[in-house]
Amino acid sequence: MLPRLHCFLRHLKTGLALVLLTTGAAHAAWVASPWQPQAGDVRAMVLETSGSTALLGGAAFTIDGMPRQGLARVDAATLALDTGFAPSITLGGQPGEVRAIAVQPSNGQIVIGGRFDHVNGVARNNIARLNADGTLDTTYDPDLTASPSGYGVEAMVLQSDEKLVVGGGFTKGGADPRSYLARLETTGALDAGFPDPGMDNYVRALAVRPDDSLVAGGFFNQAHGQPRESVVRLLANGSLDASFGDPAITGYVNALYSQPDGKLLVGGSLGQVGGQPRDGLARLNGNGTLDVAFTVDTDGTVNALARQSGTLVALAGGFEAIGGLTRGRVARIDTAGNGAVDPALTDVAVERAGYVVYSLLSLAPDRLLVGGWFARVDRQERASLAEILDVPGAPLAPSITQGQAGDGRLTLTIAPPAVPPASPITGYDVTCAPLGPGAAVSVSNAASPVTLTGLTNGTPYDCTARARNALGAGPAAEAAQYFTPQAAAGGVAAVPTMAEWALALLALVCAALGMRRARHARRYI
Q1: What share of the chain is helix, strand, coil (3-state, %, to 5)?
Q2: How many CB atoms lie under 10 A from the CB of residue 213?
Q3: Is residue 27 predicted with pLDDT exceeding 60?
Q4: Mean pLDDT of 85-112
Q5: Which of 332, 380, 435, 485 could form a disulfide with 455 if both were Cys (CB 3.0 to 4.6 A apart)?
Q6: From start to end of 300-424, where are the E strands?
Protein backbone atom coordinates (compact mmCIF):
# COMPACT_ATOMS: atom_id res chain seq x y z
CA MET A 1 0.00 0.00 0.00
CA LEU A 2 2.73 2.49 0.91
CA PRO A 3 4.52 2.16 -2.47
CA ARG A 4 1.19 2.68 -4.21
CA LEU A 5 0.47 5.72 -2.03
CA HIS A 6 3.93 7.12 -2.82
CA CYS A 7 3.31 6.58 -6.54
CA PHE A 8 -0.09 8.26 -6.28
CA LEU A 9 1.31 11.30 -4.48
CA ARG A 10 4.26 11.61 -6.87
CA HIS A 11 1.96 11.55 -9.88
CA LEU A 12 -0.42 13.99 -8.21
CA LYS A 13 2.45 16.43 -7.61
CA THR A 14 3.62 16.11 -11.19
CA GLY A 15 0.08 16.46 -12.49
CA LEU A 16 -0.35 19.71 -10.59
CA ALA A 17 2.95 20.98 -12.01
CA LEU A 18 1.79 20.07 -15.50
CA VAL A 19 -1.47 21.96 -14.99
CA LEU A 20 0.48 25.06 -14.00
CA LEU A 21 2.67 24.73 -17.08
CA THR A 22 -0.03 23.97 -19.60
CA THR A 23 -3.37 25.44 -18.55
CA GLY A 24 -5.05 27.29 -21.37
CA ALA A 25 -3.10 25.66 -24.22
CA ALA A 26 -4.02 22.87 -26.60
CA HIS A 27 -1.69 19.91 -26.20
CA ALA A 28 -0.92 16.67 -27.91
CA ALA A 29 -0.66 13.34 -26.15
CA TRP A 30 1.96 10.69 -26.84
CA VAL A 31 0.70 7.10 -26.88
CA ALA A 32 1.99 3.66 -27.85
CA SER A 33 0.98 2.55 -31.34
CA PRO A 34 -0.69 -0.86 -31.87
CA TRP A 35 2.59 -2.33 -33.23
CA GLN A 36 3.54 -5.24 -30.95
CA PRO A 37 6.81 -6.95 -31.87
CA GLN A 38 8.41 -9.33 -29.40
CA ALA A 39 12.06 -8.50 -28.91
CA GLY A 40 15.07 -9.19 -26.76
CA ASP A 41 17.14 -6.28 -25.48
CA VAL A 42 17.13 -3.71 -28.30
CA ARG A 43 20.45 -1.87 -28.22
CA ALA A 44 20.80 -0.09 -31.56
CA MET A 45 18.49 1.42 -34.17
CA VAL A 46 19.35 3.39 -37.33
CA LEU A 47 17.65 4.55 -40.50
CA GLU A 48 19.18 3.25 -43.72
CA THR A 49 20.44 5.59 -46.40
CA SER A 50 17.13 5.90 -48.23
CA GLY A 51 15.29 6.75 -45.03
CA SER A 52 12.55 4.30 -45.97
CA THR A 53 13.82 1.38 -43.85
CA ALA A 54 15.24 1.02 -40.35
CA LEU A 55 17.62 -1.52 -38.83
CA LEU A 56 17.08 -2.86 -35.33
CA GLY A 57 19.96 -4.46 -33.44
CA GLY A 58 19.87 -6.53 -30.28
CA ALA A 59 19.64 -10.17 -29.32
CA ALA A 60 16.68 -12.15 -30.66
CA PHE A 61 13.45 -10.77 -32.12
CA THR A 62 10.08 -11.99 -33.25
CA ILE A 63 8.43 -9.45 -35.53
CA ASP A 64 5.21 -10.23 -37.39
CA GLY A 65 5.63 -13.79 -36.09
CA MET A 66 9.04 -14.19 -37.74
CA PRO A 67 12.18 -14.83 -35.62
CA ARG A 68 15.35 -12.83 -36.21
CA GLN A 69 18.82 -13.28 -34.66
CA GLY A 70 20.61 -10.08 -33.76
CA LEU A 71 19.40 -7.85 -36.59
CA ALA A 72 16.11 -7.04 -38.28
CA ARG A 73 14.91 -4.59 -40.92
CA VAL A 74 11.50 -2.91 -40.88
CA ASP A 75 9.74 -0.48 -43.16
CA ALA A 76 10.10 2.98 -41.62
CA ALA A 77 6.52 3.97 -42.51
CA THR A 78 4.58 0.81 -41.67
CA LEU A 79 7.10 -1.03 -39.41
CA ALA A 80 6.40 -4.21 -41.39
CA LEU A 81 9.25 -6.74 -41.29
CA ASP A 82 11.46 -7.21 -44.34
CA THR A 83 11.01 -10.97 -44.61
CA GLY A 84 13.89 -11.31 -47.11
CA PHE A 85 16.46 -9.84 -44.72
CA ALA A 86 17.48 -12.47 -42.18
CA PRO A 87 21.16 -12.46 -41.15
CA SER A 88 22.18 -14.76 -38.31
CA ILE A 89 24.40 -13.31 -35.58
CA THR A 90 25.47 -15.87 -32.98
CA LEU A 91 27.79 -16.38 -30.02
CA GLY A 92 28.71 -19.90 -29.01
CA GLY A 93 25.83 -21.24 -31.07
CA GLN A 94 23.31 -19.02 -29.27
CA PRO A 95 21.96 -15.63 -30.37
CA GLY A 96 24.65 -12.98 -30.27
CA GLU A 97 23.99 -9.31 -29.70
CA VAL A 98 24.30 -6.31 -31.99
CA ARG A 99 24.98 -3.12 -30.04
CA ALA A 100 26.08 -0.71 -32.79
CA ILE A 101 25.18 -0.23 -36.47
CA ALA A 102 26.59 2.01 -39.20
CA VAL A 103 25.31 2.23 -42.78
CA GLN A 104 27.76 3.29 -45.50
CA PRO A 105 26.04 5.97 -47.61
CA SER A 106 27.99 5.19 -50.80
CA ASN A 107 26.70 1.63 -51.22
CA GLY A 108 24.26 0.83 -48.42
CA GLN A 109 26.51 -1.77 -46.81
CA ILE A 110 25.88 -2.33 -43.11
CA VAL A 111 28.58 -2.61 -40.45
CA ILE A 112 27.46 -4.24 -37.22
CA GLY A 113 29.30 -4.44 -33.93
CA GLY A 114 28.57 -6.07 -30.62
CA ARG A 115 29.22 -9.39 -28.99
CA PHE A 116 29.26 -12.32 -31.40
CA ASP A 117 31.60 -14.87 -32.97
CA HIS A 118 29.75 -15.88 -36.14
CA VAL A 119 27.70 -14.10 -38.78
CA ASN A 120 25.74 -16.25 -41.22
CA GLY A 121 27.79 -19.21 -40.02
CA VAL A 122 31.16 -17.57 -40.77
CA ALA A 123 33.59 -16.65 -37.97
CA ARG A 124 33.58 -12.94 -37.21
CA ASN A 125 34.94 -11.46 -33.99
CA ASN A 126 32.56 -8.75 -32.70
CA ILE A 127 32.39 -6.81 -35.98
CA ALA A 128 31.25 -7.63 -39.51
CA ARG A 129 29.96 -6.01 -42.68
CA LEU A 130 26.82 -7.08 -44.48
CA ASN A 131 25.67 -6.35 -47.96
CA ALA A 132 22.34 -4.56 -48.29
CA ASP A 133 20.52 -7.89 -48.72
CA GLY A 134 21.91 -9.26 -45.42
CA THR A 135 24.58 -11.51 -46.90
CA LEU A 136 28.07 -11.34 -45.40
CA ASP A 137 30.80 -9.28 -47.03
CA THR A 138 33.53 -11.91 -46.82
CA THR A 139 36.29 -9.39 -47.64
CA TYR A 140 35.77 -7.41 -44.41
CA ASP A 141 37.20 -8.85 -41.18
CA PRO A 142 38.71 -6.37 -38.65
CA ASP A 143 38.77 -9.06 -35.90
CA LEU A 144 38.32 -6.98 -32.74
CA THR A 145 39.14 -8.99 -29.61
CA ALA A 146 37.67 -8.31 -26.18
CA SER A 147 37.93 -10.11 -22.88
CA PRO A 148 35.61 -13.15 -22.59
CA SER A 149 33.25 -11.22 -20.31
CA GLY A 150 33.44 -7.94 -22.24
CA TYR A 151 31.47 -6.48 -25.12
CA GLY A 152 33.57 -6.11 -28.23
CA VAL A 153 31.95 -3.11 -29.92
CA GLU A 154 29.55 -0.64 -28.32
CA ALA A 155 29.65 2.41 -30.60
CA MET A 156 30.39 3.37 -34.23
CA VAL A 157 30.52 6.56 -36.29
CA LEU A 158 31.43 7.16 -39.93
CA GLN A 159 33.64 10.07 -40.91
CA SER A 160 33.07 11.93 -44.17
CA ASP A 161 35.44 9.63 -46.08
CA GLU A 162 33.51 6.58 -44.77
CA LYS A 163 36.33 5.50 -42.52
CA LEU A 164 34.73 3.94 -39.46
CA VAL A 165 35.62 4.81 -35.88
CA VAL A 166 34.65 2.08 -33.43
CA GLY A 167 34.64 2.04 -29.64
CA GLY A 168 34.00 -0.68 -27.11
CA GLY A 169 35.68 -3.19 -24.85
CA PHE A 170 38.25 -4.55 -27.32
CA THR A 171 42.00 -4.38 -26.80
CA LYS A 172 43.24 -5.76 -30.14
CA GLY A 173 42.47 -5.39 -33.82
CA GLY A 174 43.83 -8.51 -35.45
CA ALA A 175 47.34 -8.83 -33.98
CA ASP A 176 47.74 -5.11 -33.25
CA PRO A 177 46.98 -3.46 -29.89
CA ARG A 178 44.09 -1.03 -29.87
CA SER A 179 42.87 0.24 -26.50
CA TYR A 180 39.09 0.53 -26.74
CA LEU A 181 39.07 2.87 -29.76
CA ALA A 182 40.20 2.34 -33.35
CA ARG A 183 39.61 3.56 -36.88
CA LEU A 184 39.09 1.21 -39.79
CA GLU A 185 39.78 1.70 -43.46
CA THR A 186 36.87 1.03 -45.81
CA THR A 187 38.45 -2.38 -46.42
CA GLY A 188 38.19 -3.26 -42.72
CA ALA A 189 41.93 -2.98 -42.08
CA LEU A 190 43.14 -0.99 -39.08
CA ASP A 191 44.00 2.57 -40.06
CA ALA A 192 47.70 2.88 -39.17
CA GLY A 193 47.43 6.67 -39.37
CA PHE A 194 44.99 6.74 -36.47
CA PRO A 195 47.12 6.11 -33.35
CA ASP A 196 46.15 3.90 -30.44
CA PRO A 197 44.69 6.39 -27.92
CA GLY A 198 45.83 4.33 -24.93
CA MET A 199 42.56 4.52 -23.05
CA ASP A 200 42.26 2.52 -19.86
CA ASN A 201 38.64 1.33 -20.12
CA TYR A 202 35.53 1.01 -22.26
CA VAL A 203 34.24 3.49 -24.83
CA ARG A 204 30.43 3.50 -24.81
CA ALA A 205 29.51 6.46 -27.05
CA LEU A 206 30.90 8.32 -30.07
CA ALA A 207 29.95 11.51 -31.88
CA VAL A 208 31.47 12.98 -35.04
CA ARG A 209 31.62 16.73 -35.62
CA PRO A 210 31.32 18.57 -38.98
CA ASP A 211 35.12 18.87 -39.23
CA ASP A 212 35.46 15.07 -38.66
CA SER A 213 36.83 15.56 -35.17
CA LEU A 214 35.51 13.02 -32.70
CA VAL A 215 34.13 12.89 -29.18
CA ALA A 216 34.29 9.64 -27.21
CA GLY A 217 32.54 8.86 -23.94
CA GLY A 218 32.66 5.90 -21.60
CA PHE A 219 34.35 4.57 -18.45
CA PHE A 220 37.93 5.69 -19.09
CA ASN A 221 40.14 8.06 -17.10
CA GLN A 222 42.83 8.87 -19.64
CA ALA A 223 43.64 9.16 -23.34
CA HIS A 224 46.98 9.68 -25.07
CA GLY A 225 48.64 9.75 -21.66
CA GLN A 226 46.57 12.72 -20.44
CA PRO A 227 43.78 12.73 -17.83
CA ARG A 228 40.41 12.66 -19.54
CA GLU A 229 37.64 11.41 -17.29
CA SER A 230 34.81 9.78 -19.26
CA VAL A 231 34.88 12.22 -22.22
CA VAL A 232 37.66 13.11 -24.66
CA ARG A 233 37.79 14.99 -27.94
CA LEU A 234 40.14 13.90 -30.70
CA LEU A 235 41.17 15.62 -33.91
CA ALA A 236 40.13 14.02 -37.19
CA ASN A 237 43.40 12.07 -37.31
CA GLY A 238 42.90 10.60 -33.83
CA SER A 239 45.38 12.78 -31.95
CA LEU A 240 44.33 14.51 -28.75
CA ASP A 241 42.47 17.81 -29.12
CA ALA A 242 44.26 19.84 -26.44
CA SER A 243 41.74 22.71 -26.76
CA PHE A 244 39.13 20.48 -25.12
CA GLY A 245 40.19 19.93 -21.53
CA ASP A 246 39.41 17.24 -19.00
CA PRO A 247 35.69 17.54 -18.10
CA ALA A 248 36.35 15.67 -14.82
CA ILE A 249 33.22 13.50 -14.96
CA THR A 250 32.67 11.06 -12.13
CA GLY A 251 30.58 8.10 -13.14
CA TYR A 252 30.38 7.00 -16.77
CA VAL A 253 28.99 8.19 -20.09
CA ASN A 254 26.57 6.24 -22.30
CA ALA A 255 25.40 8.83 -24.82
CA LEU A 256 26.63 11.96 -26.60
CA TYR A 257 24.99 14.58 -28.78
CA SER A 258 27.05 17.31 -30.45
CA GLN A 259 24.98 20.46 -30.84
CA PRO A 260 25.42 22.61 -33.96
CA ASP A 261 26.76 25.42 -31.76
CA GLY A 262 29.64 23.21 -30.58
CA LYS A 263 28.26 22.43 -27.14
CA LEU A 264 28.06 18.77 -26.13
CA LEU A 265 25.23 16.95 -24.37
CA VAL A 266 26.49 14.13 -22.16
CA GLY A 267 24.23 11.40 -20.79
CA GLY A 268 25.03 8.52 -18.49
CA SER A 269 25.36 7.69 -14.84
CA LEU A 270 26.88 10.93 -13.69
CA GLY A 271 27.87 12.12 -10.25
CA GLN A 272 29.88 15.28 -10.78
CA VAL A 273 31.06 17.23 -13.81
CA GLY A 274 33.82 19.75 -13.34
CA GLY A 275 33.36 19.51 -9.60
CA GLN A 276 29.64 20.34 -9.78
CA PRO A 277 26.85 17.83 -9.05
CA ARG A 278 25.04 16.57 -12.13
CA ASP A 279 22.63 13.63 -12.31
CA GLY A 280 22.17 11.73 -15.56
CA LEU A 281 22.61 14.65 -17.93
CA ALA A 282 25.04 17.55 -18.40
CA ARG A 283 26.19 19.92 -21.10
CA LEU A 284 29.77 20.87 -21.88
CA ASN A 285 31.01 24.02 -23.55
CA GLY A 286 33.18 23.81 -26.65
CA ASN A 287 36.34 23.79 -24.52
CA GLY A 288 35.22 20.90 -22.30
CA THR A 289 34.15 22.97 -19.30
CA LEU A 290 30.76 22.53 -17.70
CA ASP A 291 27.90 24.66 -19.00
CA VAL A 292 26.76 25.78 -15.56
CA ALA A 293 23.50 27.25 -16.87
CA PHE A 294 22.32 23.81 -17.98
CA THR A 295 20.94 22.11 -14.86
CA VAL A 296 18.42 19.57 -16.17
CA ASP A 297 18.90 16.57 -13.91
CA THR A 298 17.33 13.15 -14.23
CA ASP A 299 16.82 10.75 -11.34
CA GLY A 300 18.42 7.83 -13.19
CA THR A 301 20.78 6.85 -15.97
CA VAL A 302 20.58 8.31 -19.49
CA ASN A 303 21.42 5.77 -22.21
CA ALA A 304 20.44 7.46 -25.48
CA LEU A 305 20.24 10.94 -27.00
CA ALA A 306 18.66 11.61 -30.40
CA ARG A 307 17.77 14.83 -32.20
CA GLN A 308 14.12 14.75 -33.16
CA SER A 309 13.39 18.09 -34.82
CA GLY A 310 14.90 21.55 -34.72
CA THR A 311 16.49 22.05 -31.32
CA LEU A 312 14.45 19.29 -29.66
CA VAL A 313 16.49 16.31 -28.44
CA ALA A 314 14.90 13.13 -27.09
CA LEU A 315 16.58 11.16 -24.33
CA ALA A 316 15.97 7.77 -22.80
CA GLY A 317 17.34 5.56 -20.06
CA GLY A 318 16.45 4.31 -16.61
CA PHE A 319 15.05 7.51 -15.12
CA GLU A 320 11.55 8.22 -13.79
CA ALA A 321 11.73 12.01 -13.66
CA ILE A 322 13.54 14.89 -15.33
CA GLY A 323 13.53 18.50 -14.27
CA GLY A 324 10.98 17.66 -11.57
CA LEU A 325 8.45 16.20 -14.04
CA THR A 326 7.47 12.55 -14.22
CA ARG A 327 8.81 10.97 -17.40
CA GLY A 328 9.03 7.18 -17.42
CA ARG A 329 12.33 6.54 -19.22
CA VAL A 330 11.64 8.78 -22.24
CA ALA A 331 11.65 12.59 -22.36
CA ARG A 332 12.53 15.51 -24.60
CA ILE A 333 14.37 18.76 -23.98
CA ASP A 334 14.84 21.97 -25.94
CA THR A 335 18.56 22.62 -26.40
CA ALA A 336 18.03 26.16 -27.71
CA GLY A 337 18.14 27.55 -24.19
CA ASN A 338 19.15 25.84 -20.99
CA GLY A 339 17.49 22.50 -21.66
CA ALA A 340 13.90 23.06 -20.57
CA VAL A 341 11.85 19.87 -20.55
CA ASP A 342 9.46 19.86 -23.50
CA PRO A 343 5.95 19.42 -22.04
CA ALA A 344 4.58 18.41 -25.44
CA LEU A 345 6.15 14.94 -25.16
CA THR A 346 3.99 13.58 -22.37
CA ASP A 347 4.87 10.70 -20.07
CA VAL A 348 4.76 7.40 -21.98
CA ALA A 349 5.40 5.29 -18.84
CA VAL A 350 7.94 2.71 -20.01
CA GLU A 351 7.96 0.14 -17.23
CA ARG A 352 8.26 -3.45 -15.98
CA ALA A 353 10.85 -6.12 -16.84
CA GLY A 354 14.18 -4.24 -16.71
CA TYR A 355 12.56 -0.78 -16.59
CA VAL A 356 15.14 0.62 -19.02
CA VAL A 357 15.38 2.06 -22.54
CA TYR A 358 18.73 1.63 -24.31
CA SER A 359 18.07 3.09 -27.75
CA LEU A 360 15.98 5.70 -29.56
CA LEU A 361 15.21 6.30 -33.21
CA SER A 362 13.38 9.39 -34.44
CA LEU A 363 11.26 8.46 -37.46
CA ALA A 364 9.53 11.86 -37.64
CA PRO A 365 8.78 14.77 -35.31
CA ASP A 366 5.69 12.88 -34.16
CA ARG A 367 7.13 9.32 -34.12
CA LEU A 368 9.76 7.65 -31.94
CA LEU A 369 10.94 4.07 -31.67
CA VAL A 370 12.14 3.04 -28.23
CA GLY A 371 14.14 -0.12 -27.57
CA GLY A 372 15.46 -1.67 -24.40
CA TRP A 373 14.38 -4.11 -21.73
CA PHE A 374 10.82 -3.43 -20.65
CA ALA A 375 7.40 -5.02 -20.75
CA ARG A 376 4.90 -2.18 -20.89
CA VAL A 377 4.60 1.23 -22.57
CA ASP A 378 1.67 3.60 -22.08
CA ARG A 379 0.09 0.87 -19.86
CA GLN A 380 0.07 -1.55 -22.83
CA GLU A 381 2.07 -4.75 -23.14
CA ARG A 382 5.16 -4.11 -25.26
CA ALA A 383 8.18 -6.43 -25.12
CA SER A 384 11.37 -4.34 -25.34
CA LEU A 385 10.42 -2.49 -28.52
CA ALA A 386 7.66 0.05 -29.11
CA GLU A 387 6.58 2.93 -31.29
CA ILE A 388 5.19 6.03 -29.61
CA LEU A 389 3.11 8.54 -31.52
CA ASP A 390 2.01 12.11 -31.04
CA VAL A 391 -1.80 12.31 -31.33
CA PRO A 392 -2.58 16.02 -31.76
CA GLY A 393 -5.52 17.22 -29.73
CA ALA A 394 -6.08 13.91 -27.92
CA PRO A 395 -6.82 14.19 -24.19
CA LEU A 396 -4.15 13.76 -21.55
CA ALA A 397 -4.48 10.94 -19.03
CA PRO A 398 -7.65 10.86 -16.90
CA SER A 399 -7.72 9.38 -13.40
CA ILE A 400 -9.56 6.44 -11.85
CA THR A 401 -10.94 7.93 -8.65
CA GLN A 402 -13.00 5.03 -7.28
CA GLY A 403 -13.80 1.40 -7.91
CA GLN A 404 -16.55 -0.93 -6.82
CA ALA A 405 -16.17 -4.70 -7.03
CA GLY A 406 -19.15 -6.95 -7.51
CA ASP A 407 -19.83 -10.52 -8.51
CA GLY A 408 -17.65 -10.94 -11.63
CA ARG A 409 -17.70 -7.23 -12.31
CA LEU A 410 -15.98 -3.92 -11.62
CA THR A 411 -17.42 -0.43 -11.80
CA LEU A 412 -14.88 2.37 -12.11
CA THR A 413 -15.46 6.08 -11.67
CA ILE A 414 -13.18 8.12 -13.94
CA ALA A 415 -12.36 11.81 -13.70
CA PRO A 416 -11.40 13.75 -16.85
CA PRO A 417 -7.86 15.10 -17.35
CA ALA A 418 -6.97 18.22 -15.41
CA VAL A 419 -6.09 20.01 -18.66
CA PRO A 420 -9.14 20.30 -20.95
CA PRO A 421 -8.49 18.76 -24.38
CA ALA A 422 -8.90 20.55 -27.69
CA SER A 423 -12.10 18.61 -28.40
CA PRO A 424 -14.69 17.46 -25.83
CA ILE A 425 -14.26 14.01 -24.32
CA THR A 426 -16.72 11.51 -25.77
CA GLY A 427 -15.96 8.61 -23.40
CA TYR A 428 -13.32 6.39 -21.84
CA ASP A 429 -11.52 3.27 -23.02
CA VAL A 430 -10.99 0.97 -20.02
CA THR A 431 -9.02 -2.27 -19.81
CA CYS A 432 -8.72 -4.51 -16.75
CA ALA A 433 -6.04 -7.22 -16.97
CA PRO A 434 -5.80 -10.04 -14.39
CA LEU A 435 -2.64 -10.39 -12.34
CA GLY A 436 -2.31 -14.03 -13.27
CA PRO A 437 -4.03 -16.39 -15.72
CA GLY A 438 -7.01 -15.18 -17.69
CA ALA A 439 -7.89 -12.68 -20.37
CA ALA A 440 -8.13 -8.92 -20.12
CA VAL A 441 -11.57 -7.31 -20.42
CA SER A 442 -12.10 -4.01 -22.20
CA VAL A 443 -14.80 -1.50 -23.05
CA SER A 444 -14.48 1.42 -25.45
CA ASN A 445 -15.79 4.98 -25.49
CA ALA A 446 -17.99 4.42 -22.43
CA ALA A 447 -19.33 7.07 -20.07
CA SER A 448 -18.16 7.18 -16.46
CA PRO A 449 -18.85 5.23 -14.30
CA VAL A 450 -17.75 2.33 -16.49
CA THR A 451 -18.81 -1.25 -15.70
CA LEU A 452 -16.83 -4.29 -16.89
CA THR A 453 -18.32 -7.78 -16.60
CA GLY A 454 -17.09 -11.32 -17.10
CA LEU A 455 -14.27 -11.02 -14.57
CA THR A 456 -13.05 -13.76 -12.24
CA ASN A 457 -13.94 -13.43 -8.58
CA GLY A 458 -10.98 -13.40 -6.20
CA THR A 459 -8.52 -12.35 -8.93
CA PRO A 460 -6.94 -8.90 -8.64
CA TYR A 461 -7.11 -6.78 -11.81
CA ASP A 462 -4.84 -3.99 -13.01
CA CYS A 463 -7.10 -1.43 -14.65
CA THR A 464 -6.22 1.41 -17.00
CA ALA A 465 -8.35 4.15 -18.49
CA ARG A 466 -7.75 6.55 -21.35
CA ALA A 467 -9.93 9.47 -22.38
CA ARG A 468 -11.18 9.64 -25.96
CA ASN A 469 -12.42 12.50 -28.10
CA ALA A 470 -13.05 13.10 -31.80
CA LEU A 471 -9.29 13.40 -32.39
CA GLY A 472 -8.31 10.10 -30.77
CA ALA A 473 -7.53 8.34 -27.51
CA GLY A 474 -4.83 9.75 -25.23
CA PRO A 475 -2.40 8.10 -22.81
CA ALA A 476 -3.64 5.75 -20.13
CA ALA A 477 -4.00 6.41 -16.43
CA GLU A 478 -3.37 3.48 -14.11
CA ALA A 479 -5.48 2.76 -11.06
CA ALA A 480 -3.78 3.64 -7.79
CA GLN A 481 -4.51 0.11 -6.57
CA TYR A 482 -5.61 -3.28 -7.85
CA PHE A 483 -9.32 -4.17 -7.93
CA THR A 484 -10.65 -7.63 -7.03
CA PRO A 485 -14.16 -8.76 -8.07
CA GLN A 486 -15.95 -10.72 -5.36
CA ALA A 487 -19.35 -12.07 -4.55
CA ALA A 488 -20.94 -10.14 -1.69
CA ALA A 489 -24.30 -9.63 -0.02
CA GLY A 490 -26.27 -7.24 -2.11
CA GLY A 491 -24.17 -8.10 -5.15
CA VAL A 492 -21.70 -5.23 -4.91
CA ALA A 493 -18.84 -4.56 -2.54
CA ALA A 494 -17.12 -1.19 -2.53
CA VAL A 495 -13.36 -1.23 -3.00
CA PRO A 496 -11.79 1.19 -0.54
CA THR A 497 -10.51 4.39 -2.08
CA MET A 498 -7.04 5.66 -1.27
CA ALA A 499 -8.47 7.85 1.52
CA GLU A 500 -10.39 4.92 2.98
CA TRP A 501 -7.27 2.75 2.86
CA ALA A 502 -5.38 5.46 4.71
CA LEU A 503 -8.06 5.67 7.41
CA ALA A 504 -8.10 1.89 7.76
CA LEU A 505 -4.32 1.80 8.06
CA LEU A 506 -4.41 4.56 10.66
CA ALA A 507 -7.04 2.64 12.62
CA LEU A 508 -4.88 -0.50 12.56
CA VAL A 509 -1.83 1.43 13.72
CA CYS A 510 -3.80 3.04 16.54
CA ALA A 511 -5.23 -0.31 17.57
CA ALA A 512 -1.75 -1.85 17.58
CA LEU A 513 -0.39 1.00 19.68
CA GLY A 514 -3.31 0.66 22.08
CA MET A 515 -2.70 -3.08 22.54
CA ARG A 516 1.00 -2.47 23.08
CA ARG A 517 0.25 0.22 25.68
CA ALA A 518 -2.20 -2.10 27.45
CA ARG A 519 0.36 -4.90 27.57
CA HIS A 520 2.99 -2.45 28.81
CA ALA A 521 0.60 -1.27 31.57
CA ARG A 522 -0.22 -4.83 32.67
CA ARG A 523 3.47 -5.56 33.21
CA TYR A 524 3.53 -3.05 36.07
CA ILE A 525 0.25 -3.88 37.81
Answers
A1: 10, 45, 45
A2: 18
A3: no
A4: 97
A5: 485
A6: 302-309, 312-317, 321-322, 325-326, 330-334, 340-341, 356-364, 367-373, 376-377, 380-381, 385-391, 399-406, 409-415
Residue 523 neighbours by CB distance under 10 Å: 6
pTM score, whole prediction: 0.86
Asked if 429 and 444 touch (Cβ cutoff 8 Å), the reply is yes
Is the separation of the CB atoms in 451 and 442 below 8 Å?
Answer: no
CA dist 166 and 256 (Å) reads 14
Distance, CA of 390 to CA of 394 (rounded, Å)? 9
Burial of 207 (0-12, 13-18, 19+ CB in 10 A): buried
At position 319, the amino acid (one-letter code) is F
pLDDT at res. 336: 94
Half-sphere CA count of 209, side-chain side, radius 13 A: 21
297 neighbors 340 (Cβ within 8 angstroms)? no
Other beta carbons less than 10 A from residue 268's beta carbon: 27
* Contact status, residue 425 vs residue 395, Cβ threshold 8 Å: yes
CB atoms under 10 Å from CB of 4, counted, come to 14
Q: How far is CA 370 from the centre of its chain?
A: 6
Cis peptide before 449, with omega less than 30 degrees from 0? yes
Q: Taking a C-beta distance cutoff of 8 angstroms, is the pair 54, 47 a contact?
A: yes
pLDDT at position 516 is 37
Rounded distance, CA 254 to CA 179, Å? 18
DSSP letters of 160-171?
TT--EEEEESEE
Rounded CA gap, 389 and 145, in Å?
A: 40
Helix axes 2-22, 498-522, angle to 10 degrees: 140
Give all strands of the β-sheet with 127-130 in edge-to-edge order: 97-103, 110-115, 127-130
What local confidence, expressed as pLDDT, does residue 480 receive? Answer: 80
